[in-house]
Design brief:
Layout lengths: L7 E5 L6 H10 L5 E3 L2 E3 L13 E3 L2 H9 L3 E8 L2 E6 H9 L3 E5 L2 H10 L4 E7 L3 H11 L4 H15 L7 E4 L3 H16 L2
Parallel strand pairs: 1-7, 1-8, 2-7, 3-4, 8-9
Antiparallel strand pairs: 3-6, 5-6
The chain binds guanosine-5'-monophosphate.
The site of guanosine-5'-monophosphate has 14 residues, from β5, β6 and α4.
């Protein structure tokens, strides 16, 4: 394991709640010294996603092989046959650079990381205004079929119910307010 033990910032939420926008914003703030934990996934690349930047895109069989060889810190079958996971090597890669890790992962994975590193982790739940707004945002994204969007929406109520288990909840009703709140939370946790 790396000598430098940085902090871990987990941002979790139902798909379409805007957590990726928040995570990207925090990454652009160089003063925080954050680096994105690139997850492995068995799903197909979407839109302009780049392998090794947005995700490590691997096959389902490769993913299952990595589960067997215990290469994951956590993994989830977030949607049927769509596996996502954090490789243990990611944390080391980032801590070795002297940086703090920021995650954009689903609620179950986020809570698992919090349980594994309770002291080092700030787990933040990003709350969308309501389910209708989620549907509008997912449709606007225009990257997926109606079936895939329905699959994401169907999961949202279960995911919303996990919010109280997180350290902090950000209501993403007004993006500028949410971004500022996220900055303040990171700043505060880095002082600890
Ligand atoms: P998407 O397909 O929209 O990129 O991601 C679907 C869901 O999987 C999102 O909630 C995303 O945050 C989550 N996800 C991405 N990477 C990981 C990961 O490494 N582990 C877990 N548990 N969830 C992830």
């Amino acid at each position: 394991m790396s000598d430098f033990k940085g902090k871990l910032f987990v941002f979790s939420a139902p798909s379409g709640s805007g957590k990726t926008t928040i995570v990207r914003h925090l990454l652009s703030q160089e003063r925080f010294g954050l680096e994105f934990s690139i997850s492995a996934t068995s799903r197909e690349p979407r839109g302009k996603e780049v392998d090794g930047t947005d995700y490590y895109f691997i096959s389902l069989s490769e993913f299952k092989q990595k589960i067997k060889s215990e290469e994951f810190l956590e993994w989830e079958e977030v949607y049927k046959d769509n596996f996502y996971g954090t490789l243990k090597s990611e944390i080391e890669r980032i801590w070795d650079k002297g940086k703090h890790v920021i995650f954009d992962i689903d609620v179950a994975g986020g809570l698992r990381i919090k349980r594994k590193f309770p002291e080092e982790t700030l787990a933040v739940f990003v709350k969308p205004p309501d389910i209708n707004e989620l549907i509008i945002r997912l449709k606007k994204r225009g990257e997926e079929s109606p079936e895939k969007i329905a699959m994401r929406v169907a999961k949202a109520p279960v995911e919303m119910a996990t919010a109280p288990q997180f350290d902090q909840i950000i209501k993403n009703y007004d993006l500028d307010v949410a971004l500022k709140e996220a900055e303040d939370l990171v700043e505060e946790f880095l002082k600890k």
